[in-house]
Fold this protein.
Amino acid sequence: MKRMWIATFFILGNSLFAEADFERLNMEAGQAAEAKNFVTAEAKYAEALASASDSKTKTQAILGKFKAMRGQKRIKEAEEFLLSRVEDPDIQLQDARQLLNTLAETMLWQKGREDCAMGILQQAQNCECPKSGNVFYQTFYIMAILYRNRAQYSAEIVVLENVLQVREQHPANLCTAHYMTGAAYEKLGNSEEALAHYRTALKFGKRVKYKYDYTKVEKAIERMCK
Amino acid sequence: MKRLILYLAALTSLAVSAADITLAENGTAKAVIVIPEKARPIVQFAARELSDHLKAMTGAEFPVGVKPGPDVNIYLGFGNANSFATDEYVISARGTRIDIYGKDTEKPVDLFDYYYDNPDKGTLRGVYNFLDSLGIRWLAPGKDGVSIPECKNLRIPEQEIRFKPYFSYRKNSDGYDFMTVHPDARGYVDSVKEVYLWGIRNHAAVRYSVVECHSERHLKLFENPEWLAHPEAQQLMKNGKRNPHYSCWTDPLTKEIWRRAANGYFSGKTPQECGFLNLKGYLGSKWPFPFFKPDEFMIDPMDHYTGNDGRCYCERCEEFRKQHPCKDDTEIIWRVIADIAKEIGEKYPGKYISTLIYPPKMQIPQTVEIPKNVRVRISLRGPSNLIFPHKIARDIESLQQWGKYFKPEDFQVSSFQCTCGFGGFLPGMLDSYPHLIARYIQTVKPYCAGIFVETLNLTHTARNLDVYIFLRLMWNPERDVEKELKEYFRLYYGPAAAPAREMFRKFEDNWIRIEREILSEKETAIGLTGESAEYFRKKIWSQVYDTAEMKEIESLMQKILKLSPEGTVYAKRARLLQKYLVQWMQDERSFVMEKEERRQQLKLSVPKAAGSAPSEEEWTKAPEYKLISSQKMGPGLKAAGSFRLLASDDMLFIRAELTEPKMDESKTDPGHLSGNHDVWKDNCVELFFYAEKSKKFWQVIVNDNNVWSSQTRGRVLNRWEQMAGLQVKTERGEGKWIAEITIPLNALETDGTDLRFNFTRERNVKGVAQECSTWSPLAMSGGWHSPDNYGTLIFEVKKH
């Protein structure tokens, strides 16, 4: 019995120390990254990753290290590193999705990487996560941009439907998703659907509690109503 | 027989004439309403209510005046009620005199005040009970919610009643925000005042003590510069960060701030004089809500939620917990409350400190003595805990244990009937359970002064019955719920009472099933959000309110509509029920389930092949599945395509015939070999497999040049991996190409019942825009990779 208590105490103690270590290392790494000292940042994030005890903190450290590596222009290596960590069983699916979203986002504006980004997102969309959260939204938002850039507007609409169906999504996200859907319909020449989505976008835009710019939505409605 | 009827009629008429008082005869009033010359406003209001209701009942005008009439006189507010308790009243009817009185307020008529705060409504209570005895009911808020029997000849028996309700506290959550929170509010009332009136008529009690909860929020410490300058007094969360919205209850500043606030409040100081610069007064109080009852100040921590348990994890709190072991923070927080209450009790006799028994302080404090001047409301789940014997036993034990520390009038129950409505957790569903409410009232009756119930749902129509029954039984717990329900449905739905009652019986039975079979998976207090909500919604809509059950509800609704004569109040009520309950359920259900139900309809039959390879005859007989354009809103297909399926014990055979008028223009890269990762850029087809149970995913891409590649999915990522044992044979022909693909079933990791599938095509030929097609209509371009969009293979003979 006594041994069990000692062991429990030891484990608890260790995990508390590890948590404290992580907080410290993560903070130091963040400071280094902010000072553009990416080499130090990478090293600190690696240490933070080693002391991270749960999915959230691990994800934080992985993303930090990924960005620090990219800061050193080691793009391919950074991507490989991130992908190598995604299958870590300690990383929860929703955090894996966040990692993939981030990776796809960095590829979004790199010429010739669009297909790769799309492939990443197709995998991300199968990682379950709360539909009300930003991680869920980001996957489809970036996908929609990719389809829009390819002028595949009907596919853009299909992808955005995933977000529009979720009433618990943040109104700012719903505003953007409806606006993009409206724009896609407009491109396809369906002005009736386009206007309906613009109007819904405006409704959600007005629900955002912080200062939120929805003038582009208002302008789109004005344009359609002319 | 005829003689017997005559005898009975004579007997009845004798009974009426001997002991009854006539109020109206043939639509003419035989009574006047008499009020004192300087009648208080509430008595004048009671007289109007009585006169109006009697007129609606008999068709006669019942004058209100200060002088008695020649016949029967109904005297309002004349008796001596000085010694009466709140809500106590007298109805005395003898000969030609009827007296109704109780303790009455001097304040002017203000329905907000009468509903929320003013307890002295004795005469008015008496009048409503008098009307109740005549069969008048206020079944729902607003004019159409009143049920008044028509009766040209109105007689009442002589009677002597002095009544005081068992429960002094009877409160539900209807209130000022009724119009904004219920989309059907205007279907009942034009203004919120009618809701207050409904509550008053049904005897909802005022908020006389332990008003509200979580008063820490209302002190707005998180905006207070003094507080913000002392982060050590703020909660230290588990992640090591301070949260100014919560307190560290072992920090001296926390106690000092509450001490200062309570002292300031009772000494008549303003919040500003006590250092709370940003607080504004409420209802004549210098202090904000809920600090407005002259004899009470609430000390109660901020509410907790899933992301924050409300506890501080600083070293001092942790040390305290070690020294005073307790399941939660009862000892820590009660130490502050009890010290301040003691001080207040000494300085300001008759003044109280109130608080909730609510996480994180649910235990009875062992190291602190609770002073006598403390009032509490204990938060319990409420009637739905009756479904689980161990839970209700736990609640009763809490009531018994806590009850020892307080005077009965200072001890109330707070309960929740808002699992569906709280945070929109289960939209379209209703936690309606009048029978449980009735049992719950009887269960807690011996232990407390009354109940507050938070009845939330997204429409009022979904909650009207439960609120009504709650108020009826709280006013008089001796009432029989079965009789009450029978009467409610008879009066409210008239000719459609039977199907309406059956519908609500279903709702109650279904809720009990939901609690038992689904929500019990996870211990939940009142509501959930996010992932859990999504999970529970799907489960409830598919297991309890499945398509068959929804059909039955719809059928009952149609019966109700059919039986409710057009132009009557019953038709109006039936339409409210349809629009704001049944239709709303259907909409919400289809919102959650439509796609999944459509997906479940997508089935592909896979006939069994006789041998290890299908014969030509078998191929011809196998069903043909055609491809459709996968471009939403796009033009029709220029090049059609279809496929057929067959299976042996071990293999799945797929033969696809793809129309291609420009076969020579294929964009397929002849240099591609099987396993190449760019095969998808060729003129190709793609097959998607997903086994539900093993979660095994495969994507197989086959071009028109006999080349194929496949990828499967790990936990997260796809990886290119050639499926072992897969065989492909393609053939280019005149105006078409054919692909024959043989898949080993064991690679798909299916048990033969759970295999989802879709077949898509990417037509890539020179001079023509890429054309994409799909078999599953759910898998439009952009949705090919999600198994939520695939159909299910139905193998004619199960794989061994």
